[in-house]
Amino acid sequence: MFTEYDPLKDTMLQILDCSGNIINPKFMPDLSMAQIKEAYNWMLYARIADIKAVSYQRQGRMYTYPPNLGQEASALGSAMALGKEDWMIPAYRELAAWLYRGVTLKDVYLFWGGHEDGGKFSNAKNIIPPCVPIGSQTLHAVGIAYSLKYKKQNSIALTYIGDGGTSEGDFHEAMNYAGVWRVPLVFVCQNNQYAISTPRNKQTAAKSLAIKAIGYGLKGIQVDGNDFFAVYAAATAAAKEVRSGGMPIFIECITYRQGAHTTSDDPTRYREKEEEEIWLQRDPLKRLKAYLVQKQEWHEEEDRKLQSQYEKEIEEQFAQAERHPYPLKDVFQYMYVETPENLRKQHIEYEKFLNWKETQKWQ
Ligand SMILES: Cc1ncc(C[n+]2csc(CCOP(=O)(O)OP(=O)(O)O)c2C)c(N)n1
Ligand SMILES: [Mg+2]
Questions:
Q1: Over pLDDT 90: what percentage of the chain?
Q2: Residues 242 and 187 in one domain
């Protein structure tokens, strides 16, 4: 696969087309129908949880949130390639991957609600907290992968980064040392076409992001990130290769952030409706559903049932997050010996917010 889709050839791995047809059977992964349905279910669950997060934020019940809409296949397809003993080193926009790894939605909502307890991901194994300082997680990933190699463990590591993250120094240091030390690491770059308002063509003059792998002696591949089968096939092949001592692999998932960068952003100021509509045709859930429907393995009725079941489960997770105590006192108490005026004012605001929260009967 990595020879056929060498980034120097400027080709992209695609298996499932936008109408749900298998157009590249050679690389179709060996998944049972039950596994494919399970993947669709995870993507649907993540999508509803994501849409609800935005609406909770709009209701003033959650803080800034980065929508994942449209990126479910690249997150889930890559996460499914990992074994239980492997390590996931996240960025911040891989909701489906976190949930698949065992992170509870309650924790995710808590984290984006500004609570440290949420970021501990204490219910999931071998995943570290989300990383918002762009690119820095890739260095953590190289360190973790190095330790796995050093301890002669059979586990591998997988880390996520965005298209914008590939312009950070940290990313280049990580790619360099991943290669020098030949660590068991897979980089998954979710190229969602934007870094806030900066489009992909202003990010780099390189033909692709995958091509950057070459300069560091790594293998790279460009895949259709809205094609669950392509992402899963590439990530599985990459995991197998790095586990057996091969060079680290960089996977560029071509996808699209259908929503805003975060709930504080307004994408209508920097991109056209026509572009959004083109990407809607390539929506990852629609495509996988079309495949299942064609195989007569899925019906709209099932979709509706599952959707309302998930909505209830998700609402319960959010209710649990809202009931979680919010003692964010550390920020105010331990930073300074004498509290500066601006922090004192923020503390008062915060106490007011907590009191207001108490008066809300969300449940
Ligand atoms: C080191 C650093 N610089 C700047 C920021 C502000 N910032 C937050 S998200 C973002 C864009 C990241 O874009 P990309 O890597 O493409 O990821 P995406 O948000 O599209 O998933 C920036 C510049 C940051 N969080 N960290
Ligand atoms: Mg991006």
A1: 88
A2: yes
